[in-house]
TrEMBL record:
<keyword id="KW-0560">Oxidoreductase</keyword>
<keyword id="KW-0288">FMN</keyword>
<keyword id="KW-0285">Flavoprotein</keyword>
<protein>
    <submittedName>
        <fullName>FMN-dependent oxidoreductase (Nitrilotriacetate monooxygenase family)</fullName>
    </submittedName>
</protein>
<dbReference type="InterPro" id="IPR051260">
    <property type="entry name" value="Diverse_substr_monoxygenases"/>
</dbReference>
<dbReference type="InterPro" id="IPR011251">
    <property type="entry name" value="Luciferase-like_dom"/>
</dbReference>
<dbReference type="GO" id="GO:0004497">
    <property type="term" value="F:monooxygenase activity"/>
</dbReference>
<dbReference type="InterPro" id="IPR036661">
    <property type="entry name" value="Luciferase-like_sf"/>
</dbReference>
<feature type="domain" description="Luciferase-like">
    <location>
        <begin position="24"/>
        <end position="386"/>
    </location>
</feature>
<keyword id="KW-0503">Monooxygenase</keyword>
<comment type="similarity">
    <text>Belongs to the NtaA/SnaA/DszA monooxygenase family.</text>
</comment>
<dbReference type="Pfam" id="PF00296">
    <property type="entry name" value="Bac_luciferase"/>
</dbReference>
<dbReference type="InterPro" id="IPR016215">
    <property type="entry name" value="NTA_MOA"/>
</dbReference>
Length: 438
């Protein structure tokens, strides 16, 4: 059976995919930018619009890392504003389960579901590190091994709160003056992280349960997703890695009594479209040069080596020293558990190809997934989905807010022609777009 493709638009943020310094790049903060990208996604009948989250500014050697975007607005606030200027587009917020309380999470997400008419999604992330924790009341209090224990418990309670009102709890009888049935929203829950009871303050939202997205890659993360997520936002965008990840995660569903269709896998990918394949390849090389400036190449190498490499010339050879394991040269970014084989691979490639440090970073960390003419890109996107490397994609443009115009104007019409992507929305909620039941 031909699978239908799911698509989401990622508003660029941190990481060096975004080229905020490009003259064609607009504001990363003005609402007008969010609105423009969301409108483009809705014009393209995308499933949803996606906002990532960072709870502490990244640092390199104790200083703000301002090579990436710094100073991003809070996601649920932005998405609530977008709800008023869009009609069908799903609105997905990344919100951390370690530094938030379930009651607060349930209420904010249900509110977004109410104000958007059933378009809310929660991307549950579990960053737990002490560096991030310093911004919060309890500091860096959570052990890494507990991140999914707390996430599981948070999700279970959030669902309990969403389910705490039954269909007829909202009486709204103006004649008798009865607003809600006694007992509405009553809940109690106790576990290792929470012991709470009370009443949930909001009647059921249009989706009942907003869509749950997960974005962690460990074994525990995959298990968490298999047990309770509707969508996985993965980093496995290439064909082979995508197929391996897809098979792994889908094979975990049966033990939770779930079908393959109940969990959609949507890797983050980039797209470069031009009139011909040759032009697109040239354009992609230019974008890579912008994404990995000399200073960015050094920071990415410092993340791998765990050392201060500021004395090195990015256009010169790779550092001669050994990497340091577990260093905190770069804070707020996932480091490398075992950098030695990666450094060895970089050195071998640099030597074989005569690459400088910067050229090595550009080639070793290539993020460009789909590059080519509109037909080449449309065929590749469709192949990945039909051959189970993904159920769809979260597109991460390198420019704000015009970075998806080419895809929407030139690739989407082809996917529609192939009969693998909608021409108009058939439902009103995000669950409808994703083909998910409650
Ligand atoms: C594709 C992807 C996107 C992510 N986006 C975010 C994010 O926006 N904010 C955040 O705090 N963590 C983000 N994370 C980090 C995950 O929540 C992180 O991996 C988690 O803290 C640790 O879980 P893990 O060990 O299962 O990977 C992302 C992870 C992946 C794989």
């Amino acid at each position: 059976m031909t699978k239908q493709i799911h698509l989401a638009a990622h508003f660029p943020g941190v990481n060096n995919t975004t080229v905020w310094s490009d003259p064609a790049s607009g504001s990363q903060i003005d609402f007008a930018s969010f609105r423009k990208l969301a409108e483009t996604a809705e014009r393209g009948t995308f499933d949803f619009f996606f906002l990532a989250e960072g709870l502490r500014l990244r640092e390199v050697k104790g200083r703000i890392h301002d090579l990436d975007v710094v100073g991003r607005p809070e996601s649920l606030t932005v998405l609530s504003a977008l709800a008023a200027v869009t009609t069908h587009l799903g609105l997905a917020a990344t919100v951390n389960s370690t530094f938030n309380e379930p009651y607060e999470l349930a209420k904010r997400l249900a509110t977004l579901d109410h104000v958007s008419g059933g378009r809310a999604a929660w991307n549950v992330v579990t960053s737990w590190d002490a560096f991030t924790g310093e911004n919060f009341r309890r500091g860096g209090y959570l052990d890494k091994s507990d991140r999914y224990v707390r996430a599981q418990e948070s999700l279970r309670i959030v669902r309990k709160l969403w389910d705490s009102w039954t269909g007829d709890d909202l009486v709204l009888d103006q004649a008798s003056g009865s607003f809600a049935r006694e007992g509405a929203g009553a809940f109690a829950d106790a576990g290792p992280h929470f012991d709470i009871r009370g009443r949930f303050g909001l009647p059921p939202s249009p989706q009942g349960r907003p869509v749950i997205i997960q974005a962690g890659d460990s074994d525990e993360g995959r298990e968490f997703a298999a047990a309770g997520a509707d969508v996985i936002f993965s980093r496995h965008g290439t064909f082979a890695a995508g197929q391996t990840f897809y098979k792994d995660v889908k094979s975990r569903l049966a033990k939770y009594g779930r079908s393959d269709e109940s969990l959609k896998i949507m890797p983050a990918v980039t797209v470069v479209v031009a009139d011909t394949d040759a032009e697109a390849i040239e354009k992609a090389a230019y974008i890579r040069e912008q994404q990995v400036s000399g200073p960015t190449a050094l920071v990415l190498a410092e993340l791998l080596w765990g050392r201060d490499l500021s004395a090195y010339d990015p256009d010169g050879p790779l550092p001669a020293e050994d990497p340091v394991v577990g260093s905190s040269v770069t804070q707020g970014r996932v480091g490398y558990n075992d950098p030695f084989p990666i450094v060895a691979e970089w050195r071998a490639q640099a030597e074989a190809n005569g690459w400088s440090l910067r050229q090595t970073v550009i080639n070793q960390q290539n993020r460009q997934t789909f590059v080519g003419s509109p037909t080449t890109v449309a065929e590749a996107v469709n192949r990945h989905v039909q051959e189970n490397a993904a159920d769809g994609f979260v597109l991460v443009p390198h420019l704000t807010p015009g970075g998806l115009d080419d895809f929407v104007d030139r690739v989407i019409p082809l996917l529609r022609e192939y009969g693998v992507f909608r021409s108009e929305y058939s439902g009103t909620t995000l669950r409808d777009h994703l083909g998910l039941s409650r």
